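Input (structure):
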């Protein structure tokens, strides 16, 4: 394990962008495999519970997990093409911008809080928007369909992630050196990519409809008028 870590450090020092791109692509691809596995297990448990309530056991169908490798490749490409290169320059540039613009003491509470606020207010929503848009277009959907999918998935993901990522980023920006901050994020992106893929696969789940019910509706405005 130590040799692997030293090898990664050497790759990062010699080829920083390439290393971030490759690692991001692999992690996001693996995250989608995990997401499909979780979705499969959830569906199997639901089917099992339904069969238990029935007098006839019809649950002897094909329970084998069949991965959608086309989807895995598309999700992995998102890591290669967006998360890796954009994330690399984002964390480097964010640190440099705050140091030069606000002249704050590095790793001070104000320095960390400013980085977390900018990261959560800009890069977080952008990452979600690009992810859901890309996955929609990659699946062959039209612009109106992608727009509806983004409206369906963006807010639930933003709310759920908004409660966790700021806490993770506090530790990241406080204790992790800048060259390794994307690696830190990528480790948690293994869970995040799994989560986002799961969100996208949930489609019109009831809990999404509940969250969307709090949004202002054009139809309601028309009726109220």
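Output (sequence):
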């Amino acid at each position: 394990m130590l040799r692997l870590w030293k090898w990664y450090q050497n790759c990062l020092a010699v080829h920083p962008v390439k290393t971030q791109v490759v690692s991001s692509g692999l992690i996001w691809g693996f995250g989608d495999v995990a997401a499909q596995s979780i979705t499969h297990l959830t569906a199997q448990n639901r089917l099992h519970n339904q069969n238990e309530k029935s007098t006839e056991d019809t649950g002897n169908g094909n329970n084998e997990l069949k991965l959608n490798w086309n989807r895995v490749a598309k999700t992995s490409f998102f890591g290669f093409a967006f998360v890796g290169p954009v994330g690399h320059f984002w964390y480097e540039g964010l640190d440099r911008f705050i140091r030069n613009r606000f002249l704050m003491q590095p790793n001070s509470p104000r320095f960390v809080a400013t980085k977390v606020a900018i990261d959560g207010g800009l890069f977080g929503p952008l990452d979600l928007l690009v992810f859901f848009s890309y996955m929609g277009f990659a699946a062959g959907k039209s612009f109106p369909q992608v727009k509806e999918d983004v409206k369906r998935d963006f807010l639930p993901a933003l709310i759920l992630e908004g409660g966790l990522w700021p806490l993770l980023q506090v530790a990241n920006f406080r204790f992790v050196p800048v060259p390794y901050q994307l690696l830190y994020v990528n480790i948690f992106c293994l869970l995040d990519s799994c989560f986002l893929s799961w969100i996208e696969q949930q489609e019109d789940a009831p809990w999404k409809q509940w969250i969307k019910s709090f949004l202002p509706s054009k139809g309601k405005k028309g009726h109220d008028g």
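Notes: The chain has one domain: 16-40+70-202. The chain is about 80% helix and 0% strand.
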